[in-house]
Predict the 3D structure of the following.
Amino acid sequence: MSGAMGRSGGAIPPARTAGSMIRMGTVISVAASLLLLTPGIAAASTPTPLPFQTANHVARNGTTTTDVIALDSQTCTAVGLGTGCTLTVSTATTAAAPRTITGAAVTPMATGSGCLTFDQTLSWGSVGIVGMTNNIRVPVCWNGPTTWRNGWGPDCKVYPPPGYSYTSDWCNMYNNNTPSAQAGQNWHISSPWSTTYFWARVNFGGAFCLLGFCGLRWYWTGGQG
């Protein structure tokens, strides 16, 4: 079902091991994105084994970050693309008002704490052709090292390659209201000849301040298999 949305509760499925994952890529991260001073853009490089993880980024209101990951031919084929495809991780954040008060929301709030809405899109593509996209949108608040869901979400969408069906296996916030909160989705796509599983996570690391600039530290990780 193209463009279906998945939101489901329950515990996170068991983590996939590196041995069960197909190779994906590496990324070169621009230091400015870590320092929060300018948007981060990362270039594609030589594929390396999954699971893949970007460098740490720091988000505040209006931050945009782009990471480009080189994919090997096996991964490209799984999403209906030829060799030489890439995965683009595009993340945008906007300010959000707190919707809930939890045990993490103490007074006074720690320096650099706040609330943002994350809107992240993954695009598997090659030479102007998009094979598959995944979108995760979630509002979060953080206070010091702790991050929590800000009232709702995440909302997850997948647009599978043409001729493939899509099933959401899990879409939720894991370790909510802790220093290791994650928002993400597990899903699989199927064709008459194959079924391939994917997972994606936005990992939150709490407040980060440098040279008077503060925001929410995060990184993306994901895999296939």
